[in-house]
């Protein structure tokens, strides 16, 4: 991917040249601030990321909410952020381990699998108290849809609680 996605900490001045955040495993992630570069006499150049857990959550949120198509590295990033093994993920997807491995190696990920991964991550990223509320809203929407079923496929929107949560903190610049 030639496009660069620039992440920054709100309220902090932007540093000079963006830093490629290679540790994410994603070619397109760059940091505009929120890091320190030091030269250590024993280890050479050492980069420290401030609030790395928050940064990783913001990257995951970007992948799940803004990115149009999930790539293998995107899929792997989301899975690892949730602390799931490929084996554990097969239970939710109803596929074998090799299918998940193929997704992560770059095989085309079917749209339903992309959507399922996004929804799993969206629920995982919410704080526990917001998660309960979001799941209740989703259950109510499913129940209502089941009683008012039409010819079209149900259109459930579980994103508003996530968007509301993340618009208050962190930042990414697309």
Could you characterize what this model shows?
Helices cover 48% and strands 13% of the residues. The chain contains seven helices and six strands, in the order βββββαααααααβ. The chain has helices at residues 52-65, 72-81, 86-93, 97-105, 111-125, 128-147, 160-166; strands spanning 5-7, 19-20, 29-31, 35-40, 44-49, 172-173. β4 (35-40) and β5 form a beta hairpin. α1 (52-65) crosses α2 and α1 runs antiparallel to α5. The longest helix is centred in the last third of the chain and has 20 residues, at 128-147. The chain starts with a strand and ends with a strand.
The helical percent reads: 40-55%
What structural class do the secondary elements suggest?
A: alpha+beta
Determine the number of helices (DSSP H or I, runs of at least 4 residues): 7
User: Which geometry do the CA atoms define?
Assistant: globular
Pick out the low-confidence regions.
151-174
| N→C terminal distance | 14 Å
Specify the biggest β-sheet: 4 strands, mixed
**How many strand segments?**
6
Give me the strand/helix succession.
EEEEEHHHHHHHE
Q: What is the C-alpha radius of gyration, as a whole number of Å? A: 18 Å
How many independent structural domains?
1
- Quote the average pLDDT: 83
Strand content: 5-15%
Query: Order of strands in the sheet with the most strands?
Result: 2-3-1-6
């Amino acid at each position: 991917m030639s496009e660069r996605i620039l992440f920054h900490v709100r309220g902090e001045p932007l540093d000079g040249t963006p830093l490629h955040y290679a540790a994410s495993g994603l070619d397109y992630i760059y940091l505009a601030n929120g890091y320190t570069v030091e030269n250590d006499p024993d280890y050479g150049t050492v980069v420290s990321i401030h609030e790395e857990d928050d940064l990783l959550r913001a990257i995951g949120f970007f992948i799940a909410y803004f990115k149009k198509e999930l790539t293998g590295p995107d899929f792997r990033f989301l899975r690892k952020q949730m602390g799931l093994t490929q084996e554990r993920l097969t239970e939710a997807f109803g596929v074998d381990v090799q299918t998940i491995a193929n997704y992560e190696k770059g095989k085309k990920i079917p749209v339903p699998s992309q959507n399922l991964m996004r929804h799993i991550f969206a629920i995982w990223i919410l704080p526990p108290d917001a998660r309960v509320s979001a799941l209740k809203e989703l259950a109510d929407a499913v129940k209502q849809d089941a009683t008012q079923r039409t010819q079209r496929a149900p259109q459930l929107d579980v994103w508003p609680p996530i968007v509301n949560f993340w618009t208050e903190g962190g930042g990414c610049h697309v």
